[in-house]
Amino acid sequence: MITWRPVALWAAGILTLPAWPSPWPVLWTWLVVVAAVALADWLLAVPPTAVHMWRTGDTVVRLGNSAEVTLHVRNDGARPIRGRVRDAWTPSAGAENERYLLNLPPRATATLTTRLTPVRRGDRHAATVTIRSFGPMGFAYRQTGNRAASALTPRWRVRVLPPFHARRHLPEKLARLRVIDGTVAMRGGGQGTEFDALRDYVPGDDVRSIDWRASARSQSIVVKNWRVERDRRVVSVIDTGRTSAVRVGDEPRLDAQIEACLLLSTVAAVAGDRVDALAVDTEVRAAVQSGGKSVVPRLLQAMSPLEPALVETDFGLVVSEVLRRESKRALVVLFTSLEPGVITESLLPSLPALASRHRVIVAAVSDPEVARLRDANDSPLDVYRAAAAEQSLLERGKVTAALARHGVEVIDEPADRFASLVVDRYLTLKATGRL
Fold first, then answer.
1. Taking all residues of the chain, what is their mean pLDDT, rounded to a whole number?
2. Which of 89, 170, 354, 429 holds its CA 20 to 30 A away from the CA of 316?
3. Same CATH topology for 48-161 and 233-431?
4. Which CATH fold topology does 233-431 show?
5. Shortest CA distance to 361 belongs to which of 426, 410, 417?
C-alpha cells in the first residue's frame, strides 16, 4: 500500500506538464517512475510479522478507576522497523490512546503503555494489534492482515469489578454489628440467641435470665450470659433474568442488586456467618460457596461478568438449587423484581417448598419515578400517567401481600437506600435470634 507521498510527487509532476512539448508521454513516464519507486520502497519495508509481542500490566480494576497494560514489541529481524502500531481494545475498555509511533532497531524492544478507564464492569478484552511498517522513503508500507494480526496479537483481559459504592455504609453497619455482638454494649438475652456462659448477677440484668438451678447450687445469684448467633447461613440469590435489565435511575436493576449482595455478604462474613451466593435465570450463571472473610473478593470476581439475560427466570430452578445446596436452615435473600406476572406464575408455586425450610426475604429495587408520576397532575397527560403509576403500585402491593401470606418478608426500596435497608433487615434478624 502507498502513502500520500507518491500521490503528491505525481501531482507535482502534473504541474510541470505545460513546460513539455508532448505532455502525455511525459505523464505516463512519470507515473511509471513514481510507481516503480513506490514498489521498491514497499519491497524494502520490513515485514511486520518479523516482530514478537507480549503484554504485562493490570488484570483487575474497579469500575471508576484506571488500569495500565503494556504491550512489548520486539524486533526479531535484521533490519530496523519504522512505522506505527495500533493497539485496539473494545470501546467499553476506555483506552485513552491506541496509536503509537514505532522506530525499532534490530533485537530491540519497545514498550507501549495503554491507559484504560473502563465504563462498564465485566471482562474487557484486547482486540487486535495492527502494525504498519514503512519503507525507507515513506512511499509505501506493509501492514498485517486480519489473519496475521490475530496470530500476532497477545491476548489480554482486564476484569472490571463492580464499583461497590455501598461500602460507604460499612462503618455504620459494622458499628451496629459490634453493639449487637456485645463488643461495645453488654450482651443481652433474647429468644433464639445462643447460650454463652454463666456469671454473677449485677444490678440491671434482666431477671428472666437468672438461672435458678445454678443459683441454688451457688452462694450468689447466677444469670445466663447470651451471645449473638454465629455460623448461620446467608444465601444471596440474584435474578439475572430480563427484569434485571430495567434501568432504575442511572443504573440497571442488576447493578443495584449486586451492590446490595456485596454489602450484605461483607457484613455477614464479618459477623461470622457462612455466606453463599447464586446468580440464576434459566441456568446458574455464578455460584460462590462460603469461605470466611475471603468470600467477598471471590464474590467480586464472580459477579463482575454478570449481564442480564433476555429470558424469564426459572424460579423452580432457583428453589431447587437453594434446597440442594443448603440442607440446614438459612436466610435466603432473593434479589428480584416485584413484577406481578413473574412472581405469580413462577415464584409463588415454588415458594412453599422454600419457605418451609428457610427464612426468605424478597428484595426488590423500586423506581422512584413511578411515585413521582403518581403525584403529578399538571396536565391531562399527567393524570393518565398518574393513574398508570397508581395501578402499578397497587399491583406491587398485591404481590407483597401474596408473598407475606407465605411468610416471606419483602423489601421494596429505591436504589439509593436499597443495600442499606437489606443489611438492616439482616442485622435485625440476627439481633433477635431469628436467622
1. 86
2. 429
3. no
4. Rossmann fold (3.40.50)
5. 410
Strand, helix or coil for residue 1: coil
Look up cell 438475652; give the residue.
189
308 vs 299: CA distance, rounded Å: 17
Contact 435, 331 (CB under 8 A): yes
Residues 300, 234, 239: CA angle, nearest 5 degrees? 60
* Helix H or strand E encompassing 316: helix 315-325
Residues 6+ apart with CB under 8 A from 184: 175, 178
- The CB density around residue 157, as the number of other CB atoms within 10 Å, is 11
Q: Which residues of 307-342 are buried (b: 16+ CB within 10 A; e: fewer)?
A: ebbeebbbbebbbebbeeebeeebbbbbbbbbbeeb
**φ and ψ at residue 424, rounded to 5 degrees:** -60, -40
48-161 CATH fold: Immunoglobulin-like (2.60.40)
Residues 6+ apart with CB under 8 A from 261: 236, 238, 277, 299, 303, 333, 335
User: pLDDT tens across 64-111, in order?
Assistant: 999 999 999 999 988 999 999 999 999 999 999 889 999 999 999 999
- 335 contact partners, CB below 8 Å, separation of at least 6: 236, 237, 238, 239, 257, 260, 261, 363, 364
DSSP string computed for 353-384: HHHTTSEEEEEEE--HHHHHHHH--SSHHHHH
Other CB atoms within 10 Å distance of the CB of residue 410 = 19
Q: Please give the Cα distance from 321 to 237 (Å, whole number).
A: 10
Range with the poorest average pLDDT among 44-53, 64-73, 226-235: 226-235
Q: How far lies 21's CA from each of 13, 24, 31, 34, 162, in Å?
A: 14, 9, 17, 21, 74
Provide the residue ranges of all domains of the chain, joining segments of one domain with +. Answer: 4-44, 48-161, 195-227, 233-431
* pTM for the predicted model, two decimal places: 0.79
Distance from the first to the final alpha carbon of the chain: 71
**328 near 290, Cβ under 8 Å?**
no
Q: Regarding beta strands 122-134 and 109-116, do their DSSP bridges make them parallel or antiparallel, or are they unpaired?
A: unpaired
DSSP string across 50-62: GEEEEEEE-SEEE
Q: Which of 214, 217, 209, 210 shows the shortest CA–CA distance to 193? A: 209
